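Before the break, one more example. Copy the sequence into your notebook; we will annotate it together after we see the structure.
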Amino acid sequence: MTQRAITDMEAAIAERARKVLPAGGFGNVSFDVVIREGRGGRVWDESGNEYLDFLLGSGPMLVGHAHPHVTAAVQEQVAKGSTFFANNEAGVRLAEAIVDAVACAEKVRFLSSGSEATFYAMRVARAWRQRSKILKFEGGFHGMSDYALMSMAPVRPGNFPQATADTAGIPDTVSDEILIAPFNDIDTAVSLIREHQDELAGVIVEPLQRMIPPEPGFLESLRDVTREFGLALIFDEVVTGFRFAYGGAQELYGVTPDLCALGKVIGGGYPLSAVAGREECMKYFDAREVGVENAVKQIGTLSGNPVAAAAGLATLEILQTPGTFENLFSTGQRLMDGLTALIAKHGVKGQVRGVPPMFDILFTDADVKDYRSAAQSDSAMLKVFNEQVLLGGLLKGDNKFYVSTAHTIEDIEEALAICDVALTAVAKE
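Here is what the structure looks like once it is written out:
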């Protein structure tokens, strides 16, 4: 696709959206595309344009769109009923699968979104520790709760550990409950934890922060210092869970937290998330164990939804097929290496950061190890690149490629050809 053709029908849908939706959309992607369907590693818009899909619904579609095994599982469950507000076998089986796979998971509590999962993980940490403050890392994305949207993308970063709100509508008092540290700076993090350990309930961290890998020893040292002071270490694995390995980032990096938040992959494309963790922490969801006055209240109409659980179980079954993760990493690495070569070919300042299932280009020559160094990336160049790949028939997020098990070597070569043209345009800027 050299120029995206838009039919009158798709234009009309977009116009209808602008009349009833703020900013004309759902608050997700910024581009004006109306997706009609997806199969495998591709999607089609309402005008019939075909795209290589490296957005993957912002990550849930790790095994591709409309996978026959997932579709069959969903259809079977829908015929039996969509939701019950009660235990169901699919949800119980999925909880068992998570406990079997994830190192920290002794118990599981289901929710509906990643934002809920991180929110409740922090609440459980507070209940367990009987303290209120949480330390998070500048630039860390933990969803849309008030606590998560502190120094996630500060326009004018302040001095550590002061937190600043990233959105209107957050009470000023929230900033008093969050401490901010720079990612990958273990000395600063340890110093803040030692100074505030009497006030802290726990530490929440993305094992891979956006596209920035942890430096050797960083996660291990966080584990050591939180254990020393009896604080909860929370891994936000909404993105990394069942994507970096079957056991998630905990398996890939060999560090076990007290609690983790899971989402995206475990719902197989349906709304589902979870808090998983040690029995010592998770018992605070059970008033019979800790008493009503100490228990964390949590009710969700669709928590443990049987359709989402069936889709998640089917997805995990696919991921257990021998060689699945080896192939996923090989495919993603081929695209990462190809992008690195294209950056050099076009003489563009830039680097590919992340891991093979999830990465992006940062248009900077700087050593990127935290939010502030990543913020030096040229956003104008990224905007041009994203616009050009979309015109070329490649769908991705504003700052992320997601790779699926459905993507083929041929898809990767086609993607690289599109990116070659896009980087030609970037080089002219």
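The longest strand covers residues 200-205. The chain has a mean pLDDT of 96. Try to locate both features in your own notes.
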